[in-house]
């Protein structure tokens, strides 16, 4: 799956529309049952969901119902993705079925459309989460070992679409050491392993990691890697 993520990054970097990015994701992930996607910003109380969708590959009837019923106001996942940084299974977004009948309705109606399961990647920003990427399908079946690669792919895809939309920040300059360490992180190495490879202490490696995160306006290592890949600062 890590090789597939690397191929995806290389392919998507050449795409010029958000629709092409989602088609590339579908092509890369179809064999594990992922062929539906939604990429959106987190709506403010005054925004409608259609105003914050960046790209979507969902059943049109579901999107129309979701907008008509204003489900984004009660969708447990939209709420949960504001609060967490780590990816999660869509069905695990918490809600109270007795006190929140609308949330229960969202979950049931999604199942009616065959998209009641999925994987959600929150998109972190410097002052909190700014959006999320949902991916799923009628034959959705991913293993835990797939999730780190899906996480990176979603972060990269979102960052690339931001760039296409003109909402990404200007590139920042990373030092040679910062690029080197982020490249090893992209390859799946831990801080301890990177320290051994580069003959650096764990503390020094972590210091460079945190510097990179701050420079890239990221919140996590994976987020920083995705932005660095998008900007061409590192490569797989």
TrEMBL record:
<keyword id="KW-0238">DNA-binding</keyword>
<keyword id="KW-0805">Transcription regulation</keyword>
<dbReference type="InterPro" id="IPR000792">
    <property type="entry name" value="Tscrpt_reg_LuxR_C"/>
</dbReference>
<dbReference type="InterPro" id="IPR005143">
    <property type="entry name" value="TF_LuxR_autoind-bd_dom"/>
</dbReference>
<dbReference type="Pfam" id="PF03472">
    <property type="entry name" value="Autoind_bind"/>
</dbReference>
<dbReference type="GO" id="GO:0003677">
    <property type="term" value="F:DNA binding"/>
</dbReference>
<dbReference type="InterPro" id="IPR036693">
    <property type="entry name" value="TF_LuxR_autoind-bd_dom_sf"/>
</dbReference>
<dbReference type="GO" id="GO:0006355">
    <property type="term" value="P:regulation of DNA-templated transcription"/>
</dbReference>
<protein>
    <submittedName>
        <fullName>LuxR family transcriptional regulator, quorum sensing-dependent transcriptional regulator/LuxR family transcriptional regulator, quorum-sensing system regulator CciR</fullName>
    </submittedName>
</protein>
<dbReference type="InterPro" id="IPR016032">
    <property type="entry name" value="Sig_transdc_resp-reg_C-effctor"/>
</dbReference>
<dbReference type="Pfam" id="PF00196">
    <property type="entry name" value="GerE"/>
</dbReference>
<dbReference type="InterPro" id="IPR036388">
    <property type="entry name" value="WH-like_DNA-bd_sf"/>
</dbReference>
<keyword id="KW-0804">Transcription</keyword>
<feature type="domain" description="HTH luxR-type">
    <location>
        <begin position="167"/>
        <end position="232"/>
    </location>
</feature>
């Amino acid at each position: 799956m890590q090789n597939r993520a690397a191929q995806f990054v290389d392919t998507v970097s050449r795409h010029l529309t958000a629709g092409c990015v989602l088609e590339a994701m579908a092509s890369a992930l179809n064999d594990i049952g992922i062929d539906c996607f939604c990429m959106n910003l987190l709506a403010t109380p005054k925004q409608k969901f259609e105003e914050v969708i960046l790209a979507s590959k969902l059943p049109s009837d579901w999107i129309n119902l979701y907008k008509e019923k204003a489900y984004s106001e009660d969708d447990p996942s939209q709420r949960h993705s504001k609060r967490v940084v780590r990816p999660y299974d869509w069905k695990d977004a918490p809600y109270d079925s007795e006190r929140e009948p609308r949330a229960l309705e969202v979950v049931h109606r999604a199942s009616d459309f065959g998209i009641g399961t999925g994987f959600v990647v929150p998109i972190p920003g410097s002052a909190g989460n700014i959006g999320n990427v949902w991916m799923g399908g009628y034959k959705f079946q991913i293993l835990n070992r797939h999730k780190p690669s899906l996480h990176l792919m979603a972060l990269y895809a979102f960052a690339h679409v931001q760039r296409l939309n003109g909402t990404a920040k200007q590139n920042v300059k990373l030092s040679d050491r910062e690029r080197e360490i982020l490249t090893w992180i992209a390859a799946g190495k831990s801080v301890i392993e990177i320290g051994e490879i580069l003959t650096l202490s764990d503390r020094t490696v972590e210091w460079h990691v945190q510097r990179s995160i701050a420079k890239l306006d990221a919140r996590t290592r994976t987020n920083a890697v995705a932005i660095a890949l998008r900007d061409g600062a590192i490569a797989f």
